[in-house]
Amino acid sequence: MTAHPNTTKFTDTARPEIYRFHNGEKASQAFDAAEYDRRLAGLRKIMEDTGVEAAVFTSMHNIAYYSGFLYCAFGRPYGLVVTPSESVTISAGIDAGQPWRRSHQDNITYTDWQRDNYWRAVRSVSGGRQSDRL
Question: pTM (2 decimals)?
Answer without folding.
Answer: 0.82
